[in-house]
UniProtKB/TrEMBL annotation:
A family per Pfam: DsbD_N
InterPro entries: DsbDN (IPR028250), DsbDN_sf (IPR036929)
Protein name, UniProt field: Thiol:disulfide interchange protein DsbD N-terminal domain-containing protein
Signal peptide, first to last residue: none
All residue ranges annotated as the Thiol:disulfide interchange protein DsbD N-terminal domain in the record: 37-155
């Protein structure tokens, strides 16, 4: 009986240590590059922009439309100044990661991906330079675990030229590869300027009995998609 009690205490202690490690694990840092299709635009024009996201090797994030409700979707949250409106956000095509013992794969963005954003300038926007900030919300995972959801900030610099000014294109293979207006495009809800961002609340790992099981069984079998 003493040996059984000791074994139970060891298992319980080990489980709590594992859960604490999951709860305190720091999410990996990501790098974000901002891209703009031209050196500026005139008032009333729409400008193609994007962010290019670089994850550490071996990491992925959930797509903007994960296939399970409990997963945290990646979301780009723009905060443009007055006179500049975000009229479309285009996410990349998600890849699929199959998991051992799971019927539904994970819809993910892998180590390098880009999100396109259309910025529309008001007809009466004064000439000048503007900063368009944004936030990327994401949950990074590797082959063994998912980390706490977090955010990263970035901003675009947008130059508004006088009417009739010559605008110079800034070639970008990343921007050229984004299909604006396609099936992965997200537009403001209700014809307004606000995007619906799925709410989330980071759950306590102590609220589930399945954490250890999920971590033990988390094995990537293969990938499909882009």
């Amino acid at each position: 009986m003493k040996n059984i009690n000791r074994t139970v205490r060891i298992i319980a202690t080990g489980t709590l240590l594992l859960l604490a490690a999951v709860a305190s694990a720091q999410p990996p840092q990501i790098q974000i590059e901002t891209l703009v299709a031209a050196d500026g635009a005139t008032a009333g024009a729409t400008l193609r922009t994007a962010i290019r996201v670089y994850l550490a090797p071996g990491f992925h994030v959930n797509s903007n439309k994960p296939l399970e409700d409990f997963l945290i979707p990646t979301a780009l949250i723009p905060s443009p100044p007055d006179g500049i409106t975000v009229t479309e956000i285009t996410y990349p095509e998600a890849g699929l990661l199959e998991q051992k013992g799971a019927e539904i794969p994970l819809a993910v963005f892998e180590e390098r991906f880009a999100i396109g954003v259309l910025l529309t300038l008001a007809n009466d926007l004064p000439v000048g330079t503007y900063t368009v900030p944004g936030t990327l919300r994401y949950q990074a995972c590797d082959e063994t675990m998912c980390y706490m959801p977090t955010t990263a900030t970035f901003d675009w610099g947008v130059r508004v030229w006088p009417e009739g000014a010559t605008v110079t294109a800034q070639p970008s293979e990343v921007l050229d590869g984004i299909v604006f207006g396609g099936e992965n495009a997200v537009v403001p809800s209700g014809g307004g300027a606000e995007f619906v961002v799925p709410a989330w609340e980071a759950p306590s790992v102590f609220e589930t009995d399945d954490v250890v099981t999920m971590l033990h069984d988390f094995e990537i079998l293969g990938t499909t998609g882009g």
